[in-house]
Design a protein that fits this description.
This protein has a 5-stranded parallel sheet, with helices on both faces. The chain has 2 domains: about 120 residues, Rossmann fold (3-Layer(aba) Sandwich); about 70 residues, Rossmann fold. By secondary structure, the protein is α/β, with parallel strands linked by helices. The two termini are about 15 Å apart. Pfam families: CoaE. Pathway: Cofactor biosynthesis; coenzyme A biosynthesis; CoA from (R)-pantothenate: step 5/5. Its EC number is 2.7.1.24.
Length: about 200
């Protein structure tokens, strides 16, 4: 029986570091960010849906998605961002579930790397959820350092996602990343040993 572990966190909590440990241990990773890029490649129904709703100016001359134009539109307008999310949700869900099902054929553990797992309701497609956790104050500090942001900019980005405390409260597994990268990696290895 394959266990599907959804791994999530929030911006700058260290989710990618935790996922990398699973990858190095040889487990298949279903990466929702990669899938999000795949569903809007030239010739896909996802890209066509964007053009139908937002217009031809969302395309580059080679027929690929003009990410700059789309970014400009959705980052300045909450309603447009919501419209885009709703538009792409069915394409994303179909691809993510399809990739999870394929991966279950090759491994007894599949990692579903989904940053907005709770926000988009993916907890019903996984068996357990692991949250990579740091408190919000540390999130803000790490984000300022990582992306060279002001405190106000970092707070705004952190607040744009569901609270990490809420995610932690809902999680089946919590990887606490307040220490070093090695300590986080060790927690993932320990979890894998217990699972076996």
């Amino acid at each position: 029986m394959t266990l599907i572990l959804g791994v999530t966190g929030s911006i700058a909590t260290g989710k990618s570091t935790a996922v990398e440990v699973f990858r190095k241990a040889g487990y298949p990773i279903v990466d929702s960010d990669q899938i999000a890029r795949r569903v809007v490649e030239p010739g896909t129904p996802g890209l066509q849906a964007i053009v139908n709703v937002f217009g031809e100016e969302m395309l580059n001359s080679d027929g690929s998605l003009n990410r700059k134009a789309l970014g400009k539109l959705i980052f300045s307008d909450e309603k447009q961002r919501e419209k885009l999310n709703q538009l792409l949700a069915p394409f994303l869900e179909e691809a993510i579930i399809g990739d999870i099902q394929l991966a279950t054929k090759e491994s007894d553990l599949v990692i579903a790397d989904i940053p907005l797992l709770y926000e988009q309701g993916y907890e019903c497609h996984v068996d357990q959820v692991a949250v990579v956790y740091i408190p919000e104050s540390l999130q803000v500090k790490r984000l300022m350092k990582r992306d060279a942001l002001t405190e106000a900019e970092a707070i705004q980005r952190v607040k744009s996602q569901e609270s990490i405390e809420l995610k932690k409260a809902k999680a089946d597994v919590v990887f606490d990343n307040q220490g070093t990268m090695v300590q986080l990696e060790n927690q993932v290895h320990d979890w894998l040993k217990k699972k076996k």
